[in-house]
Amino acid sequence: MPSHSVPLTPGLASFLKTLKTNPIDTSIENLISLLKRRQIRHSRSCATATAHLLRSVISACRTSDASKLIERVQSVGRRLIAAQPREMVVGNIVRRVLGLIRDEAEDDRDGDFTLSEAGSESQPQTPRPGDDPFDRSVSKPISSLATHPVSMFSLLSHPDSETSLPGTPATASPSGRLPGHTPNKDIRAEVLDGINEIIDELGQVDDQIAAYALDHIHSNEIILTHTSSTTVQKFLLKAAAKRKFTVIHAESYPNNHEATHATVSGKAPDDDEIISTESFQKPLIAHGITVILIPDSAVFALMSRVNKVILGTHSVLANGGLVAAAGTRVIARAAKVHQTPVVVVSGVYKLSPVYPFDFDSLIEYGDSSKVIGYEDGDLVDQIDVQNPLYDYVPAELVDLYITNLGGHAPSYLYRIVSDHYRKEDISF
Amino acid sequence: MAPKKGGANKSRANATEEVEETLQAVVLADTFETRFEPFTLDKPRCLLPLANTPLIEYTFEFLANAGVEDVFLYGGAHSDQLESYINESKWRAPSSPFKQFTYLKSTSTSVGDVMRDLDNKHLITGDFLLVSGDVISNLPIEGALAKHRARRQTDKNAIMTMILRKAGRDHRTKSSSVSPVFVVDPTKDRCLHYEEIDHHSPESSRLNIDTEIITTHSELDIRQDLIDCNIDICTPDVLSLWSDSFDYQTPRTQFLFGVLKDYELNGKTIHTHVIEGHYAARVRNLKAYDAISKDIIARWAYPLCPDTNLLPGHNYDLRKGTLYQEKDVTLARSCVVGRRTVIGQGTSIGDKTTVKDTVLGRNCKIGKNVILDGAYIWDNAVIGDGTTVRRAIIANGVVVGNKCTIEPGVLLSFGVKISDGVTASEGRRITKAPRDEDGDSPASDPKIVGAGGEGYEYVPYEDEDEDETASNASSGLIYNMAHLSLSTESISTLSSEVSDYGGSRSGSFATSVSDDEDQDTHFVQDAVASVFDSLRDGVSSDVVQLELVSLRMTANASDHEVRRSVASAFMKHVAQSMEGGQAAGDVIRETFRKYHEIIERALFDRDSKAKPDQVDLLVLLQQDLVHRPRGDTVLLFAAKELYELEVIDEEAYEQWWADERSSNSEEMRKVRSQTQQFIDWLANAEEEESSEEEDSDEE
C-alpha cells in the first residue's frame, strides 16, 4: 500500500510543498480556495502562507520597478483579503510587504540623491549587527523613535509627517514611484530578504514573546487562560521553567475544547496546521505546574482568586481592541469586575491597522453543529443556531499587550501600527 | 482527450509502483431521476442553484476539500450545457485543484450503464470516490479513506465503504417517505443488508432480514437514522461487479442490495462509515433542496456558506440575523428583510415588502407590498406589486404580475409569465419548456397563467416519471412534502412501473398486488425492461420469447407475473410510440401483429371453457392503462386487435366484462368505458357470425 506521507486533506503543509513546483497563479488560486474553505486557519498559518506566497509572487515578478511590484502585490493581496476578510493577518502581511517594497524603493532613491538628512537619520538606526532577529522595519522606527523623540510628537500633531520622515523630499509621490528614474539595482533581492525576515519573525515570535514571561509571571500566582493558543502555552512554559504557579484553563467550548484538552493533558495534537509542533513537547503539568481545567461557565466564580489573566488572540486592532476566540470577552469582563489584570500575548504580525467601526463584521460565525448536534432534527428545524468563533474585546478591558517587541499599553498600539504599516497601504 | 489518456496511464504506472496513489473521483452529474422536473427540462439538475450557487460547485468543493486529484464527470441530460459551464468554471482552469478533469458524455440511462461504461474505459486505477453531482458535504474524507484502505489491506474483498451521516429519527434533510435501512455488523462496520422502507405503502414497510444474518452475527445494528448521501469509496472491483451484473441499474436498491444478497456467491463485503460530526447530504429531491438550503443558510454546512463565495464572482457578506447580501442590492427604506435570507447582486426590493426565509438570486425585481416567505427565487425574476409568494420555487426569468398569489409548493420553471391577479394554486408546476423532441411546446394555458401569460401546467409523462404518483395522488401537496420523495432510489424509467404496482397509487390494486414478494417485483421489473427494450428495438418475437422464458425460469415467476410484465411492457411501448406522434390504432396493430405470440405464450387456457388467464391479462392491461394518457382509447384498440388476432376469445371478453376486478373502482370503469362499444359489437357480431355461418353452410 502507498505510504501516506502527504496529508490527504490540503492544508498549510501541502500548500507550502506545492508552492515551489506550481506556477504562481495556481498557487494564488490555491491559497484563495484554502482560505475560503478554511483549510488554512489560525493567524499564524495564514500569515505564513501569505508571506510564502508573496515571496514567490515577487520572485516570479520579472520587473524590478517598485511601482509594478507594488501593483502586483496589491492585486494579489486584494484577492486574498476578499477570500477571507476576517483573517486580518493576511492583510497585515500584505501591508508589511508593500511597506518593504516602498522602503526599498525610497532607500534606493535616497542613495541616488545622497540625501544627507535621511542618511544621517538612518545611520544610528542600524547599530545592531545583521543577525538582528527583529524585522528591519520593526527595529528601524523604534530606534528612530529613541534618537528623535521629537518625531513622535510631530506624529501626534501631523500624522502625515511620520511617513515623510525617512525620505522627506522624495515621498512627495505617495506611491513611492519616481517617474523617469530607473533604479540601478534590483530591489527585489532586498524585498525578498525582507520577506524572509518576516517569515523568520513568524517562526520566532512565540519564543520572543516568551522571553518576557519571567517579568510577568511570579511565583505562586494563579493565572487564568483560555484556548489552546501556542503563544500562551510557550509563555507559560517559559515561566514554568523557573517558577511555580497555578494555571486555570478555561476549556473554550465548543470550538476549541478538544485542542485545549489535548494541550492540558499533553497529548500531542495532530494538527498539521501548526508547523512548529516541537513547541508542544512538554505540557505544563510535566513541569510540575498545577493546571486546572474548568468549563467556561466557571470563569466568573474563580476570577476572584486569579492574579492574572493571560489571553491569546486572533488579531489585534488599531484601537487596542482585539478579536479573539469566543469567550474571551466574558473572561475580560469578569476580570474587569474583579480588577484582575488582563494580559494579551500576541505577535506583532497580528496587529492590524484596521479600525473596528463595525465589529460585528469582524466576527466570523462558524459551524452551528458544534453547538447543537445536527442529528437533533427537531431542534435543527425550529431554532436558529449561531456559533460565533470570535469575540470583540474592547480596549478598555485589556491592561497590557505583550508582543515580540515588549509590553505595551493598549493606548500605545496605534504607535506600533504606524511603525509597521505605511499610511498609504492601510486601505489599499 | 489525448493528453488526458496519457496522464491516466502515467497515474496507473504510479499506482502499480505504489509510490503515491492519487485519489480519483467519479461524479455522476445526472442521476437519472426526474424529481426536479419541470426545472430539469431546461437545465441539468446539477446546475440548478442552491443558495445561489450551482449544485455541482458544492460537490467539486467537497472533492477538492477531500484532496481528490482526478475527476471524471459523467454528464447526462443537457450535457452540452453542463460541458460549457464546466469549461468556463475554475475547475477547468490551470489553477484547478484537480490535476485531471475529464468530462465524459454518455448516453446512459442509468447509473448502472455509467458504471459499466466506466469499467470498459479502464480509466480508474485505484480506489475512487463515487459521488453524485448534488452532494453537499464538508467532510474531510481522510478518516474514512484510511479505514477503507486498512480494511482493504487485510481483506481484498472489502470493496466499498459508504459514508453515512447519523441524523436522529426525524430530520428535515432525510427523505421522509422512503427511508433506507442499513443492517450493520458494528464490530466490523460491515453492511449486511439493505432495504428501503416506503412509508406510503403498507406492504413494503417491513423489513425482511435473512435468518442467516441473524444467526451468524452476534451483534447487529439495524439503523434507520442515517442520511445516505451517496458518497462511496470504491475499489475498481466495484466496477467489474457492475459489469458482471448487467441488469443492475440503481446503486442502492439494486447494486447494494444485490451484492449483499449474493455475498455467498461473490464473497464481496461492503462497509459503512458512519460520521457524527460534519455535514453530508444530497439534494435528492425538492424537499431536500428546501432542507439543505436552510442548512446552508444556517451554517450547518460551514464552511460551505453563502459568504464563503464559492463562485469567483460572488461577494456575499453575512449580516445580522443570518442575512447574506451581495453588493449593489437596492432595498427600499420601508421594506423588511427578515432572518435567514440571501439576496444576490443587483436585486431590488420595493416599499413595504416583507422578505423572510427566502433566497433571492441576482437582478431580481421585487415590487411593492410583496410578501416573500420561504420562497426560492432564482436570477432575473420579476415579482409584481402586491404579490404573495410562500414556499415556492421561481426559476430564472420568471415574471409574476401584480397582485398574484403563488401558493405553497408551486414550481414556476424558466421563463414562465404569470399575468396580473392570477392565483397559482398549491403544488402546481408550470413550465414553458418544449415537451416533445421536435421542440413543440404546448400552447400557453390562460386558465393557469392568466391572459397574456406564458406557460402551461406540467404533467409528467407516466412512463418516465415516478413522480407522477405524487402529482396524481396529491394535487395540492407541497413540493417539500413527503410524496415527492417517493421511491427515493428509483433511477431508471422502469422502477416507475414497480412503484405503480407497489400499491401506493391507489388502493384498488392492493388486492392483486399485496401478495407479491420482493423477488417477484424484481422479476417484473426485469421482464418489463427486457420486453420493452426488445419491442423498441424491433427484436424478433422468438428472441423476446426466449429471454422472457429464461427470466421466468431464473426468478421462478408465476404465469400471472409473466402476463403482468408483458402487459406492462406492451402498454409502455404503445404509450411511448404514441408520444412519438403515431396514432394509437396503428401502433397497437403493428405491435400486436408482430408480437402476439409473446402474449399467446403467456396464456394457457385456450382450450378450457373458463378463461382465467385471458381475463387476467385483460385486467392487467386495463390496470396498466388507468394511468396512461388516453388509456381508454388504447384499451379499446388493444381489445379489438387481440380479438382479431385470435389471441383472446370472445368468452374471455365476456368474462372480463363481468369480472368484478375490471369494474371495482371509478378509474377502472372509466378506462374501460370506451371499450363498451367493442363489447357490444362483439355481442352483436356473435349473433351475426352465427348467421353467417349458417349462410356459408347453405352455400
From TrEMBL, chain A:
<dbReference type="Pfam" id="PF01008">
    <property type="entry name" value="IF-2B"/>
</dbReference>
<comment type="subunit">
    <text>Component of the translation initiation factor 2B (eIF2B) complex which is a heterodecamer of two sets of five different subunits: alpha, beta, gamma, delta and epsilon. Subunits alpha, beta and delta comprise a regulatory subcomplex and subunits epsilon and gamma comprise a catalytic subcomplex. Within the complex, the hexameric regulatory complex resides at the center, with the two heterodimeric catalytic subcomplexes bound on opposite sides.</text>
</comment>
<feature type="region of interest" description="Disordered">
    <location>
        <begin position="108"/>
        <end position="141"/>
    </location>
</feature>
<protein>
    <recommendedName>
        <fullName>Translation initiation factor eIF2B subunit beta</fullName>
    </recommendedName>
</protein>
<feature type="region of interest" description="Disordered">
    <location>
        <begin position="156"/>
        <end position="185"/>
    </location>
</feature>
<feature type="compositionally biased region" description="Basic and acidic residues">
    <location>
        <begin position="129"/>
        <end position="138"/>
    </location>
</feature>
<dbReference type="InterPro" id="IPR042529">
    <property type="entry name" value="IF_2B-like_C"/>
</dbReference>
<comment type="similarity">
    <text>Belongs to the eIF-2B alpha/beta/delta subunits family.</text>
</comment>
<dbReference type="InterPro" id="IPR037171">
    <property type="entry name" value="NagB/RpiA_transferase-like"/>
</dbReference>
<feature type="compositionally biased region" description="Polar residues">
    <location>
        <begin position="162"/>
        <end position="174"/>
    </location>
</feature>
<keyword id="KW-0648">Protein biosynthesis</keyword>
<keyword id="KW-0396">Initiation factor</keyword>
<keyword id="KW-0963">Cytoplasm</keyword>
<dbReference type="InterPro" id="IPR000649">
    <property type="entry name" value="IF-2B-related"/>
</dbReference>
<dbReference type="InterPro" id="IPR051855">
    <property type="entry name" value="eIF2B_beta_subunit"/>
</dbReference>
TrEMBL record, chain B:
<dbReference type="InterPro" id="IPR056764">
    <property type="entry name" value="LbH_EIF2B3/5"/>
</dbReference>
<keyword id="KW-0808">Transferase</keyword>
<dbReference type="InterPro" id="IPR044123">
    <property type="entry name" value="W2_eIF2B_epsilon"/>
</dbReference>
<dbReference type="Pfam" id="PF25084">
    <property type="entry name" value="LbH_EIF2B"/>
</dbReference>
<comment type="similarity">
    <text>Belongs to the eIF-2B gamma/epsilon subunits family.</text>
</comment>
<dbReference type="Pfam" id="PF00483">
    <property type="entry name" value="NTP_transferase"/>
</dbReference>
<dbReference type="InterPro" id="IPR016024">
    <property type="entry name" value="ARM-type_fold"/>
</dbReference>
<feature type="domain" description="W2">
    <location>
        <begin position="514"/>
        <end position="692"/>
    </location>
</feature>
<protein>
    <recommendedName>
        <fullName>Mannose-1-phosphate guanyltransferase</fullName>
    </recommendedName>
</protein>
<dbReference type="Pfam" id="PF02020">
    <property type="entry name" value="W2"/>
</dbReference>
<dbReference type="InterPro" id="IPR003307">
    <property type="entry name" value="W2_domain"/>
</dbReference>
<dbReference type="InterPro" id="IPR005835">
    <property type="entry name" value="NTP_transferase_dom"/>
</dbReference>
<dbReference type="InterPro" id="IPR051956">
    <property type="entry name" value="eIF2B_epsilon"/>
</dbReference>
<comment type="subunit">
    <text>Component of the translation initiation factor 2B (eIF2B) complex which is a heterodecamer of two sets of five different subunits: alpha, beta, gamma, delta and epsilon. Subunits alpha, beta and delta comprise a regulatory subcomplex and subunits epsilon and gamma comprise a catalytic subcomplex. Within the complex, the hexameric regulatory complex resides at the center, with the two heterodimeric catalytic subcomplexes bound on opposite sides.</text>
</comment>
<feature type="compositionally biased region" description="Basic and acidic residues">
    <location>
        <begin position="427"/>
        <end position="436"/>
    </location>
</feature>
<dbReference type="GO" id="GO:0016740">
    <property type="term" value="F:transferase activity"/>
</dbReference>
<keyword id="KW-0963">Cytoplasm</keyword>
<dbReference type="InterPro" id="IPR035543">
    <property type="entry name" value="eIF-2B_epsilon_N"/>
</dbReference>
<keyword id="KW-0648">Protein biosynthesis</keyword>
<feature type="region of interest" description="Disordered">
    <location>
        <begin position="427"/>
        <end position="458"/>
    </location>
</feature>
<dbReference type="InterPro" id="IPR011004">
    <property type="entry name" value="Trimer_LpxA-like_sf"/>
</dbReference>
<dbReference type="InterPro" id="IPR029044">
    <property type="entry name" value="Nucleotide-diphossugar_trans"/>
</dbReference>
